[in-house]
Write a structure and sequence with these properties.
Layout: E1 5-6, H1 21-32, E2 39-41, H2 44-51, H3 59-72, E3 76-81, E4 84-89, H4 92-95, E5 100-101, E6 123-125, E7 136-140, E8 158-159, H5 179-193, E9 196-198, E10 201-206, H6 212-227, H7 233-244, H8 253-264
Antiparallel strand pairs: 1-8, 2-4, 3-4, 5-7, 6-7, 9-10
Helix pairs in contact: 1-2, 1-3, 2-3, 5-6, 5-7, 7-8
Length: 272
């Protein structure tokens, strides 16, 4: 799941002054775990797991927090479908602009799409129809007259998770990179991002050369990504940096594969 972003103004939102501190933490967890359509599971057990893993709130308390948030902030919609509970963030598209859009796996709330979710004249989308794993690039331009009324599901400013900025790409008519191009970038990143530096020359990277096994893994990963519809080369750069930047980095190709499949929304496959 792509990482979501907060505007610092979230913490001074007038609508949130009626919420308790634990409810504000729950609101932040809801923003962080929404999908590209602004939806997530809304049952108290799930919300407790993503928000209060180290606390002792009961399911009844979490449910009360969730319902009170929906009461004080109309941007949170709690609804049921076939007996299951879900949450929809009404204004998510104002603030969350995923680089590659993936439709929600959760059912839409009653009345969807809301008026503001309908395609606007200043919104562009590629005409190419997506296959199961194909990536569709969208461009969203900022709407006019936002005003100063702050919404719960804002998403710019404070990063959650990986350190890539959620920038909107320009529409492109270029064909997806070929398998050879993907392999070249994978190998280049392996050498550069996972290289070594000496204390006396911190500005110089000693490339890490892949072993025969690692070269085979890189070839397999390039073939897998190409078969799934392609992968932007910049995303490969970010994946290697993300793995290398973890507190306890595990610089294995299998971890890069896991990150890329998660970011691209691909179904879990056999290990590489």
């Amino acid at each position: 799941m792509p990482k979501r972003w907060f505007d610092p103004a979230f913490f001074t939102d007038e609508k949130m002054k009626r919420a308790t501190v634990p409810e504000r933490l729950l609101a932040a967890a809801i923003i962080a775990n929404q999908d590209d359509d602004g939806r997530l599971r809304g049952d108290p057990a799930y919300l407790r797991a993503i928000t209060f893993l180290y606390d002792d709130y009961s399911l009844e308390e979490v449910k009360a927090m969730r319902d009170h948030l929906a009461e004080v902030n109309p941007n949170i919609i709690v609804y049921k479908n076939a007996g299951d509970e879900y949450i929809q963030l009404r204004h998510h598209r104002r603030y969350q602009k995923p680089r590659y859009y993936h439709p929600s796996k959760f059912p839409a709330p009653p009345g969807w799409p809301f008026e503001e979710e309908l395609p606007a004249s200043n919104q562009k989308e590629t005409e190419q129809q997506p296959s199961d794993n194909h990536l569709v690039t969208k461009e969203h331009t900022e709407g006019k007259g936002k005003g100063n009324n702050l919404d719960l599901d804002k998403g710019k400013g404070i990063g959650i998770g990986r350190g890539m900025a959620a920038q909107t790409p320009s529409p492109s008519t270029r064909a997806p990179p070929s398998e050879i191009q993907i392999l070249h970038r994978l190998t280049e990143c392996f050498k550069r991002e996972w290289g070594r530096v000496k204390a006396e020359a911190l500005d110089k990277v000693i490339p890490r050369e892949p072993t025969a096994k690692e070269s085979a893994q890189l070839r397999d990963l390039a073939r897998e990504l190409s078969s799934a519809g392609g992968c932007p080369l910049e995303t490969i750069d970010e994946a290697f940096r993300d793995v290398a930047g973890q507190p306890q980095p595990k610089m294995h190709i299998s971890y890069v594969r896991k990150v890329l499949r998660a970011w691209l929304g691909l179904e879990r496959g056999p290990p590489g």
